[in-house]
Write a structure and sequence with these properties.
Layout: E1 14-16, E2 20-22, E3 31-33, H1 37-41, E4 45-52, H2 62-73, E5 83-86, E6 92-96, E7 101-108, E8 145-151, E9 157-164, H3 170-184, E10 232-239, H4 241-251, H5 262-277, E11 313-316, E12 326-330, E13 336-344, H6 345-354
Parallel strand pairs: 7-8
Antiparallel strand pairs: 1-7, 2-7, 3-6, 4-9, 4-11, 5-6, 8-9, 10-13, 12-13
Keywords: Transferase
InterPro entries: CAT-like_dom_sf, Plant_Fungal_Acyltransferase
Protein name: Omega-hydroxypalmitate O-feruloyl transferase
Length: about 350
């Protein structure tokens, strides 16, 4: 599958109704909601879809149920009902207006089976299942939460979400979706999310105790930025357990390492393949960053449910940034790994060859 040109997806026709606003079911706090420096770092739009099957219940009332549950859950996640703006300090911040999330009802003229493997990003086709705000020029013009519910003829439905990463990371987004689903089933929210992000405010004045190379600028000696003026192709590469084990064996062959994890071996292999595919100069400095969940490492500890941070399937619509590569567990026992990458068309063919083990 390349950029939504799948034959199956050509069958996917989705008709949207007019978008509406879903405000919190009760009065919520108003005013400005603080976002930490960590939140400011990755203020990108993340589009994901969640597929639900229900042969027994069907989907006749699903839109009304989900919409009602959203209004109830927004009482607890009220910043998602606000709007992003810029503070006097020129920082991203949320104006808790209570306007509500954007909600769209849609219908597809086929069954869920047409979607195939949704773990592979496909912005053209999967994008039909996530509503984009028309004419939006920047993230300030996109509400923090946009939801689309698409009903399929088989009785299943897809929840497509468009959420700004500054509002919640992957773990937080799943907690939000799970809380939303529990509310739709009539369950009470046992533990509300902890929303006070001011506990992450930086020292005043700031005190840096070690270099932050992750923010340093790197000279592009290889003119790699020119590659990204081309069409970006999205591909998914599935590595089975035996191939992952082979990578680890290769990493240890020269005896320079005593041991190596699957993540380390795979990261190094993918990074080297990407570097070769982009034909970077030998003296080109590069930067490899990993997204990790650091909640358990805070001292003093941060509160539980400081996240926000049962679909049958979920997947990314597109990679949030051109330089992002995703590792997704795959298979019945989740022992395989899907490597999802977006590269310029000129580099993708070489990358495919290099990924052959």
């Amino acid at each position: 599958m390349e950029n939504g040109k799948s034959t199956l997806f050509e069958q996917l026709c989705v008709k949207n109704k007019e978008p509406t606003l879903v405000p919190p079911a009760e009065e919520t706090k108003k005013g400005l909601y603080f976002l930490s420096n960590l939140d400011q770092n990755i203020a990108v739009i993340v589009r994901t879809i969640y597929c639900f099957k229900s042969e027994e219940k069907g989907n006749e009332n699903v839109v009304a149920v989900i919409k009602d549950a959203l209004s109830k859950v927004l009482v607890h996640y009220y910043p998602l009902a606000g709007r992003l703006t810029i503070s006097p300090e020129m920082k991203l911040i949320v104006d808790c207006t209570g306007e509500g999330a954007v909600f769209v009802e849609a219908e597809a003229d086929c069954g869920l089976e047409v979607l195939g493997d949704i773990t592979k990003p496909d912005p053209v086709s999967l994008g039909k299942l996530v509503y984009d705000i028309p004419g939006a020029q920047n993230i300030l013009e996109i509400p923090p939460l946009v939801a689309q519910v698409t009903k399929f003829k088989c009785g299943g439905f897809v929840l497509g979400l468009c959420i700004n990463h500054c509002m919640c990371d992957g773990i937080g987004a799943m907690e939000f979706v799970n809380t939303w689903a529990e509310t739709a089933r009539g369950l009470e929210i046992k533990t509300p999310p902890f929303l006070d992000r001011t506990i992450l405010k930086s020292k005043n004045p700031p005190k840096s105790q070690f270099p932050h190379h992750e923010f340093s600028e790197i000279e592009d000696k290889s003119n790699s930025s020119g590659h990204y003026e081309q069409e970006i192709l999205y591909k998914s590469f599935c590595l089975e357990p035996d191939r992952l084990e082979k990578l680890k064996t290769q990493a240890l062959e020269d005896k320079s390492l005593e041991n190596c994890t699957t993540f380390q071996a795979l990261s190094a292999f993918v990074w080297r393949s990407r570097t070769k595919a982009l034909e970077l100069e030998p003296d080109q400095r590069t930067k490899l960053l990993f997204a990790v969940d650091g909640r358990s490492r805070f001292d003093p500890p941060i509160p539980e449910r400081f996240r926000w941070g049962g679909p049958v399937l979920s997947g990314p619509v597109a990679l949030p940034e051109k330089e992002v590569i995703l590792f997704l567990s795959h298979g019945e026992e989740r022992k395989s790994v899907n490597v999802v990458v977006g590269l310029p068309s000129s580099a993708m063919k070489k990358f495919e060859q290099l990924m052959e083990i």
